[in-house]
Amino acid sequence: MQVSQARMFIGRLPFKSDLLEALTGFCGLHRVTLGTFSVIGALSEVKLGYYLQDEKRYVECVHLEKKLEIASCTGNISLKDNEIFVHAHVTLADHTGVCYGGHLMSGARIFAAEYCITELAGGVLERVHDPGTGLHLWHDKGGL
Q1: Model confidence pTM above 0.85
Q2: Which of 5, 27, 112, 127 is the most buried (most CB within 10 A)?
Q3: Coil vs helix vs strand at 54
């Protein structure tokens, strides 16, 4: 699918809010249904997930209640069951440089978070169940 950049948003997410919920809420408020994003900042708590490929399910693999820098947080925005779906992976570092990473889950408490969201235009991407992986993956309504 060929897309083009539409709008771009930069800003800060609210202190103590949930990172995943804040991103999803922002996208809903501005009707961003297709895009990419990055976030930098810090968290005071996080929950990360890991997909067990053999069992075809996500599990919470890390739950940390400590101060962490967001070394990288990237993801995409699309639709799942006609609702905005934010998919993010994050790498975090503690004060000693030890890093943690995985699938961002609800429960990541923001200390400070600055975002850059790029809305894309030119198509619709809807996540549909893929029996081979057990995941909800993109289905290109525009011609795959």
Answers
A1: yes
A2: 27
A3: coil
Assign a CATH topology to domain 4-140: 60s Ribosomal Protein L30; Chain: A; (3.30.1330)
Q: Which two tokens stand for residue 124?
A: 């619709």
pLDDT digits (tens, 9 = 90+) for 72-115: 999 999 999 999 999 999 999 999 999 999 999 999 999 999 99
Q: How far apart are the first and last CA of the chain?
A: 8
| C-alpha span between 58 and 81 (Å, rounded) | 19
Q: Are strands 99-104 and 35-52 parallel, antiparallel or unpaired?
A: antiparallel
Residues 6+ apart with CB under 8 A from 30: 7, 9, 119
Cα separation values, 119 from 34, 77, 82, Å? 6, 8, 17
Residue type, 105: M
Contact in structure between 119 and 10 (CB atoms under 8 Å): no
Closest CA to 108 of 50, 57, 66: 66
